[in-house]
Structure formats: C-alpha cells, structure tokens
C-alpha cells in the first residue's frame, strides 16, 4: 500500500509555554481591570420561549430573533431594506415570533422543506440572491456545515465562548456523507481515531487517550462493562465532541474527550421525511421521521423516528438486521415551563464476527482476502438498547432558567462466538488456540441532572453562571457459559477459510463471570463567567464529587454449581477538580483563550507492589489548552486552532521485579500528550461548504521513554467538501473528501499458551500511512425529493483500520463501496 510521509516537528516545550501563559494570565488578573459588559444571547430552543427584542431595523430584529430562537433564516437584503420592526415582548414559537416581527412590513414567513425559514413578499416578485442567517439550536437546525453553538457544556453555548476544542458533526454532514452510526460520525470528526476493540465494539481516541465520557442531550452516562453500544444516528440531530479533559461535567475518566449525542426534538410545524437507501453487500435501509404540533394550539408537540435495516458485510459469513423506534413529546405547561419525555428502542441481531484477525507468530499480518471472516453461521449476537428520558425546562425570567433531566438506559448483549486465536504458526498456518465462548452480558445506566443557568449584573458588569448537581450510575454483568465445540481433526488453519464447517455448539449453564459490577458518581459543579473588560472574561469553576465502584466474581463447576465467589468494592469521597480559563476578544469575530483543568481517574483494579498490595491511588494530572476561535466571510466560515498539553501522574506500570505477567503494579507512569488541533467548517462561497481538520499529536510515557498510545497517528487530516453548481445547474451538487493518517502501530505483550505453559511475549504490529478518498453526487429532483450517490474508498485502499494483537483484534478497513439514497422532505 502507498506510504504517506508527513512533516515531523517536536512540541516538547509546549507544556512550558502553556504553563507560562497560564501564569501570565494569572498575574494579569491579579493587577485588576475595568470593564463594560456585552450581553450574550439567551439559550436558544426550538419551543416557545420568552423574547425581549427592542424596536429597530427589521434586519437587526430578524438577526436577533434567529440567534435567540436557534433557527436558520434566509432572506434577501432588498426585502428588508428600510423597514422597521416593533418591539417584541412575550413567549413565542419560531414561526409565530417571525410573523409578529413582520407585521406591517408586507412580508410573510415561509417554512422550507428542510425545516429552515425564509421570507417573501405577500405579492410574488422575482427571486433575488439570498443571504443566510444561521444560529444553531438544541433541535435539528444544524442543516449546514457550520454551527454557532453546542450544548455539550450544559445548555446551548456559543462555540466561540467555550475555551476548549469542540467539533459539531451537523445533520447536514451526517446526511451528505451518509453516516448512519455514531462510529461513522466519529470516524469523520477531526482529531478522532475510531477503531474496533477486541470484542467488536467501537472505541474512540483523542489526543492519545480513550474517550470514555458520553452524554445524551448533555446528560452524562457511562459504560462500565466491556461492551459499548454503537447508536444509530437517525434519532439524533448532531454529534458534539469536546477534545481534552472535561473537568466540570465528566471529571473522572480518561482525558481524551467527551461525546454528546443531541436528540431530534419536535418542531412547532408539521414536518416529515423519508429515505430509502441501497448499497454494496445488500445493504438496504429505510428511515422515516415525522413531527409537529399535535394539540392545544401548538403547545403539545411530538416526533417519531423509525429505522429498518438489513445488511451483509464485506466479509462473510456476517449479516445484521436492525429496527429502531424513537418517540418524543413536548408540552408547554405554561409560557415559561416545558416538559418533554420520550423513549427509544434499538434492536440489532445477526451473524456477527467479533474477534477480528490474528497475525503470524512474527507479528506480520496474515494477508487473507478482505472478504474472509474467521467465522461460522451459528456465531450470532443479539443486542438491545432501550432508553427512556424526561426533561423539565423552566424560565424564571429573561435571565435565569432551570433544567431537570433524567435518563435510563438498558443495554443487553448476548452472543455465541467462535474463537480461533493466534498467533498463527507461519510455517504450518495453524491457529495457536481453538475455542468458542458464549456470554450473557449487559449494561444498565441511570443519570439525573439539576442545573440552573443565568446571567446577572454586578460591579457594573454582566456575568454568567451555570451550577448544578448530578448523579450517574452504571451497572454491568458479564457471565460466560459452558460451551463445547467439536473440532474433528483437533486443529484448524487459515487454509480452512473460507469453507470451514463445524457443528453447532451445545451451550450449558454458567462457567464463570461477573454477575454484577458497576460505578456510581454523585457531585456538584459550578462555572462562573466573569466579564472583566470590554474584551476579557475570566472563567472559574470546579466539580466536587464522590465516587464508588464494585464488582463480584463467581466460578462454577461443570455441573453449574457455584464453587467460588469474590466481591470487591472501592469508594473515594470529596474529590475536587478545578477549572479555570481566560478569554480575550480580539475582534467581534475572533477570540483567544487559555484553559486549565485537572485530571482524575481511579485505578483500584490494580494491586500495588507485593510488599504493600493495596489498591493503587488514582491517576491525577493536568490539562492545558491555548487557542483561538473565530469566523470570516461574515460569519459563514468557522476557524479554530489549539495547542494542548496533557500530563498524567501515577499511571500503573507492571512491577517487573516479579517478571513478565506480574499481577503487581507500581504507580510510576508519567504520561505526556502534546499537540495541535486545526479545524475549519462552514461556507467558503455561496453553495460551497467545507468541513476539515488537521491534528498533530506526540505522546509518551516519560518514565519508560516509549510511546503511550501508538494507535494514535502523529498526523491526521480529514476533509469533506460539497459544492452546488450555480444557475440553471443548481439542482446538481458534487462532494468529496479524504481521511489521511500517518504511520502508526500497536505493541506490548500478550498471553499465549506454549508447551512450557502460559507466557507473555512482546509484539509490534505496524500500519503504514494511508489515505482513503470518498465522493458524492446529489440531484435535487424537486423541492421535496433528492437522489444521491455516495462512493466510499473510491481507490479501494487496502489497509487495517484497527491494529490488535497477535491473538486477535486486527480489522481491515472497508473496501470500495457505494450507496444510492432517495430522500424526501415534506
């Protein structure tokens, strides 16, 4: 495969630079400053909310309203030129609010098929060139590549005012690139490394660390079991990713980042869509989506989304059948209080290959055709994800609001799998270990959050506050069944695939497993944004939390009788993680920032040295970031750059005084991750949109002078761009993009059975740099219907998307494929 070389540069001094910057900011603040505050828009929503917009030009009032309502509004400058709008006071839905502003102007509101709004004269006139006014909201208004806000930090917040790197994969990006799963969206997001773990589940890394903090509508959830679901994107408006440690709302865990899935919400007008898609390997998919006002003059709104999918994979045998249903209701109890709730159910079943490929005993890849799976047609997996949620929003006045959110998730996971593990003997082609396993697993999580958001004036300035309390818990199980497979010849080799046939296994009672394990986190948080000058803000905050986890293990004999059990538990209270940042507005469109937060991660699953085998202390550390965010082309194009440094102390490393495979550990690891993030999103010119990012990362364990996360390439570049032809050809849109990564590897030790018993030899598996190109063409058949063709990996690049171990976990990237989609919006 072709090798891609990248410029190499070192960021070793970055930590010192960021520390010095933070110190300089602190000294500057100590000297004091004077300020006059600027009012930021209130939190936007798609439902009724209160507005206070003073009388002024119609253009200014419409811009103000669109920003606060979080809608996409298009109009011609000529339409509003010289017109005035009266003062707008009261509670309005987007459509009724626009109509109120337009009274006496001779204009009227038009609801477009994609859910956006436009204006027109009451008497038709020739169509003129349009100007877009876009403001992202908490509903599906993200129908562009650029968005101005994100809700990952509790409520909609301007991206420019969040002093950390945040990426939003909008609904338009999801549809244009034909992204159907959360893992698809993360694979296209700047700076994210999307892989498959050793059990066939999606895994994501950012800045060298695994992302293990998840949110749904800003409410934290977690997965303590081995298995993490991959969510279907049909029920979500957008995917938000915060890169780096989140010391306020997630706190404990890896500092790689946080993923927030923003659900689709009801609109206040009738809107529906349907899509029918068919792609390579018999991938058939149907989506339906309908929502709008139901009763009580639009105070009761609802939305329902459904998915049916039946597909095979590029490797065989493997197939999947999926059904998804999602429903949500919103009701305005009063002009200031809205309650919303709903449920979703995602069921996936089929013949599933979970383990991936092994390597030869010299760590070289097997070189099997990509269509070959080390699998049999009785190896099945059934997964179900059920979710219920409830939210109450209340606005006390124009400045203060409160929100109570609750969610329950239930993830059940049962499977039967063939296990042919490596390494494969290079001389004979035989697998190192033959077996199979069956498990009954699951993960149940609950979360509750109560927060208050507001702004207040003090000392002549306007300030903002977010504070709240939350509780989240996650409980899992992993029970392995007795299992027998008849291997007639007592050996299996790679030459037996494809075509290997084995009788279906007999599954008995439990063999061993963890009937209960989990974690709980309860805490409070606060963030105060103080405006200290015309251009400067100081942000101070922190999280105070208590942590608990537990596990139980059981061992059964061949008859299914319990013969041994063990229970473990751990807790730590009063953990405080501080957060601080400073932002400075260079211009109304550009802001610079520096931020700091601490890192905390329990590692009680590791025993200390033999002379003191207590649980290891938690990992602690620091996250520094220095950056700039802004927009050009009248706000149509967003740009951002960030330098970061993450330090972690006390990482568990194996106590080699007791040899390889020791179960004793020392808290001596010192992990440093440094790098650069660059991102651009939005409209380069009318009809030409772009979403791109470049990241550089250097990470290592300074105690051992080895790379900490070799799976993270030093260089990653991702690009997607779409262009709609002008004039009479405007029904045609062409798009394309690339994902390019520099060389990377995976190394370490792994367990293998030899004639001398269990040993733990070293390994190193490498992947050279590569680039995968995609393309798209779309034809707008009418105002409601469009037909698109997506081509992925158009040059059929042969590469490994995931590097595992010699035993298993190596996965090919998807070969060239195509999908044609017919989509209607009404």
Write the layout of secondary structure elements.
Layout: H1 14-30, E1 49-53, E2 56-57, H2 58-69, E3 72-75, H3 77-80, E4 84-85, E5 88-92, H4 94-101, E6 107-111, E7 117-121, E8 131-134, E9 149-150, E10 157-158, E11 165-169, H5 171-176, H6 182-188, E12 192-196, E13 202-206, E14 209-210, E15 213-216, E16 219-221, E17 236-243, E18 257-263, E19 271-279, E20 283-295, E21 300-312, E22 319-332, E23 337-351, E24 380-395, E25 400-421, E26 433-458, E27 461-484, E28 506-531, E29 536-556, E30 562-587, E31 590-601, E32 619-632, E33 637-654, E34 665-685, E35 688-701, E36 715-724, E37 732-741, E38 744-749, E39 752-754, E40 757-759, E41 762-767, E42 770-780, E43 785-792, E44 800-802, E45 811-812, E46 817-825
Parallel strand pairs: 3-7, 15-18
Antiparallel strand pairs: 1-5, 2-4, 3-8, 6-7, 9-10, 11-17, 12-13, 13-14, 15-16, 17-18, 19-20, 19-46, 20-21, 21-22, 22-23, 23-24, 24-25, 25-26, 26-27, 27-28, 28-29, 29-30, 30-31, 31-32, 32-33, 33-34, 34-35, 35-36, 36-37, 37-42, 38-41, 39-40, 42-43, 43-46, 44-45
Helix pairs in contact: 2-4
InterPro entries: Beta-barrel_TonB, Beta-barrel_TonB_sf, Plug_dom, Plug_dom_sf, Secretin/TonB_short_N, TonB-dep_rcpt-like, TonB_rcpt_CS, TonB_sidphr_rcpt
Domain Secretin/TonB short N-terminal: 71-122
Protein name: TonB-dependent siderophore receptor
